[in-house]
Amino acid sequence: MLSKRIIPCLDIKDGRTVKGINFVNLRDAGDPVELGQRYSEAGADELVFLDITATHENRKTLAALAREVAKNLNIPFTIGGGISSVADAGALLEAGADKISVNSAAVRRPELLEDLAKAFGSQFVVIAIDARQVENDWIVYLNGGRIATEHRLFDWAKESEARGAGEILFTSMNHDGAKTGFACAPMARLADSVSIPIIASGGAGTMAHFLEVFTEGKADAGLAASIFHFGEISIGELKGYLHQQGVPVRM
Question: Is 130 a catalytic residue?
Answer without folding.
Answer: yes
